[in-house]
């Protein structure tokens, strides 16, 4: 039985001992892994249909037609997808099933990631975290779809570099390695702007600072796209970098709007801990002076205790 650490001990500020954090992390990881395994098992049953769905656009784009394969006559470069080795079909089946499991189960493991981080947020920030999860799943799926959509164009550009007297063979295991890397990399890369917005809503960075980073971020995103794309061609790199740059500026706009809203609600929200807030030093009008009753020692009708050295008692 997996017992949630937060059901055993609840803290209004989300504080837990280290052992409870590790237990919570174990539970969240186990739930994510179970979800991926379940979807993977289902995907293995429909492995052939999924493989045909993934390879279909590439075959339509650069595949050799029947009679124009290896040794045949063809007017333009084309390619064939092959399975090399006795165990290749089994290995490919596992790769296709695992990739499908990671992509399809993304709503579950993204929610588990949020559920692990949510206790560290304040109560007014948790409502935004739910919106981040709702936006994170479509962004990840959009990145995965973009990788699938640009794959035929990328394959056509690369196969077009083949000399006329050469033939192309695409080993299926290598092909699905490229597809898996592109789908995962594109999907996670689309989460970067969402992470920046999360940090802004948590008060870690400001929209003005993000706007000042735009030159370095554009260069960094371009370098990341060049390293992350398995094919390494400029077309695929540009198709990955351009949407992330657009999403980055969109995230910057959201952060600037949130900073403006925060300043309206609290003018001192943007001040650091060592920075003093503005004070109104305008002298205020003095009201009427209230008369004070004389002390007991100064009233002749009520002499009270004897005053010594201006004090009512011996002290």
UniProtKB/TrEMBL annotation:
Where it sits in the cell: the answer is: Cell membrane; Membrane
The coiled-coil segments of this chain are none
Q: Which UniProt keywords apply?
A: Cell membrane, Membrane, Protein transport, Translocation, Transmembrane, Transmembrane helix, Transport
Chain segments annotated as transmembrane = 29-47, 96-117, 129-151, 178-199, 211-229, 235-257
Q: Where is this region: Disordered?
A: 287-315
Query: Membrane topology for this entry?
Result: Multi-pass membrane protein
Please indicate which superkingdom the organism of origin belongs to: Bacteria
The similarity comment for this entry is: Belongs to the TatC family.
Q: Share what the entry says about its subunit structure, partners included.
A: The Tat system comprises two distinct complexes: a TatABC complex, containing multiple copies of TatA, TatB and TatC subunits, and a separate TatA complex, containing only TatA subunits. Substrates initially bind to the TatABC complex, which probably triggers association of the separate TatA complex to form the active translocon.
Q: Know the name of this protein?
A: Sec-independent protein translocase protein TatC
Native organism taxonomy: Bacteria, Bacillati, Actinomycetota, Actinomycetes, Kitasatosporales
Q: Which gene encodes it?
A: tatC
């Amino acid at each position: 039985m997996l017992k949630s650490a937060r059901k055993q001990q609840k803290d209004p500020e989300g504080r837990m001992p280290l052992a409870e954090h590790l237990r919570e992390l174990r539970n969240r990881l186990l739930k994510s892994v179970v979800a991926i395994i379940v979807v993977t098992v289902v995907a293995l049953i429909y492995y052939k249909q999924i493989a045909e769905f993934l390879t279909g656009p590439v075959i339509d784009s650069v595949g050799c037609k029947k009679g124009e394969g290896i040794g045949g006559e063809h007017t333009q470069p084309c390619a064939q997808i092959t399975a090399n080795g006795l165990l290749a079909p089994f290995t490919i089946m596992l790769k296709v099933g695992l990739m499908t499991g990671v992509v399809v189960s993304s709503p579950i493991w993204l929610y588990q990631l949020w559920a692990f981080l949510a206790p560290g947020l304040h109560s007014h920030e948790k409502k935004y975290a739910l919106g981040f999860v709702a936006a994170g799943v479509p962004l990840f799926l959009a990145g995965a779809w973009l990788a699938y959509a640009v794959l035929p164009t990328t394959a056509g550009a690369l196969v077009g570099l083949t000399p006329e007297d050469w033939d192309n063979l695409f080993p299926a295991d290598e092909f699905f390695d490229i597809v898996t890397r592109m789908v995962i990399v594109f999907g996670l890369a689309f989460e970067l702007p969402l992470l920046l917005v999360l940090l802004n809503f948590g008060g870690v960075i400001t929209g003005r600072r993000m706007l000042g980073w735009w030159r370095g971020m554009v260069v960094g995103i371009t370098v990341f796209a060049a390293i992350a794309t398995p094919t390494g061609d400029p077309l695929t790199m540009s198709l990955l970098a351009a949407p992330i740059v657009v999403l980055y500026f969109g995230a910057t706009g959201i952060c600037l709007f949130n900073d403006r809203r925060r300043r309206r609600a609290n003018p001192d929200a943007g001040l650091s801990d060592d920075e003093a807030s503005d004070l109104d030093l305008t002298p205020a009008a003095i009201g009427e002076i209230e008369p004070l009753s004389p002390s007991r020692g100064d009233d002749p009708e009520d002499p009270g205790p004897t005053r010594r050295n201006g004090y009512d008692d011996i002290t």
